[in-house]
Fold:
Amino acid sequence: MDLMSKMHVHLMRKMHVHTRRLPTQMNKRHLATVGMLGSIGFTMSLLLVDKSVSGALAIQGKLAVILASSTAALLSAGI
Structure:
């Protein structure tokens, strides 16, 4: 096994990545609803940045929204 494969296996073990079960009173419909609300919030954040500022500040704002959303997605997948 090469070094990258060993690192990947080690990180997966450290993160305890496995299939999670939903809480007993939650179903996939609830999960889809929360996902849609999150996507609306993401879209609104980009729209507000686009309409309120321009130039380099707008680019920084959009990058901040994308970075924060990506970080949240990665953390929720690993926890």
Q: What stands out?
A: The mean pLDDT is 80.
